[in-house]
Write a structure and sequence with these properties.
about 200 residues; alpha+beta; Ribosomal Protein S4 Delta 41, Chain A, domain 1; Structural Genomics Hypothetical 15.5 Kd Protein In mrcA-pckA Intergenic Region, Chain A; 3 domains; five-stranded antiparallel sheet; 9 helices; 5 strands
């Protein structure tokens, strides 16, 4: 429980549970932490945009520098900057390991990648920020498949009730292929991305 507390407090501050373990704590105390957590405070426009930016950042477990850099890349691409931003974040290797049902949380997914358990197109990749492209295949390394976390994943222990429409996943083989660039409406992140765009564009 001690390890869960920081994420529980962060979940309450952001207004969203960041891990499955946080859900029960968050439902019990769905207000921000601290003595003034229950008090209704008027939030400024800046505060509202900042909260949405922080929500997005923590759901992908990226640093402020990484998020800003990704936003700058999203602005340069054609189309809506907010949609581009989510698509770029969603194509990170750790995010797709999570969406494929190989990990329970984004934190576990990041650890799986950095510990060299994940292959992309047959090559070992240890960078969570690695950008996966359409038709790339993500797979758990053969030796790693025997470990308890991956056995749990293969049995569907981490799988979402709604599989991502942009992934072709075989849990039994612990293999997934990115079929196309994710669309914003298909990505299960809780965030008003337009407010994030406004935050960085101010």
């Amino acid at each position: 429980m001690n390890q869960a507390r920081p994420k529980v407090r962060l979940s309450r501050a952001l207004g969203i549970p960041l891990t499955p373990k946080c859900v029960k704590y968050f439902e019990r105390r769905p207000f921000p932490p601290g003595v003034h957590g229950r008090a209704r405070k008027k939030v400024s426009d800046y505060g509202t945009r900042l909260l949405e930016k922080q929500r997005l950042r923590h759901q992908y477990n990226v640093s402020e520098k990484q998020l800003r850099r990704t936003f700058e890349e999203a602005v340069r691409k054609p189309g809506k900057s907010g949609d581009n931003l989510v698509a770029l974040l969603e194509c990170r290797l750790d995010a797709l390991v999570l969406r494929s049902g190989f990990a329970r949380t984004i934190y576990q997914a990041r650890q799986m990648v950095t510990h060299r358990h994940i292959l992309v197109n047959g090559r070992r990749v240890d960078k969570p920020s690695f950008r996966v492209k359409p038709y790339d295949t993500i797979e758990v390394a053969a030796k790693s498949k025997q470990s308890v976390p991956f056995q749990t994943a293969a049995a569907g222990g981490y799988a979402s009730e709604r599989p991502a429409a942009y992934l072709d996943v075989s849990l039994s083989a612990l293999r997934a292929t990115l079929l196309r660039v994710p669309e914003r409406v298909q990505v299960p992140v809780v965030c008003d991305v337009q407010l994030v765009v406004e935050f960085y564009s101010r």
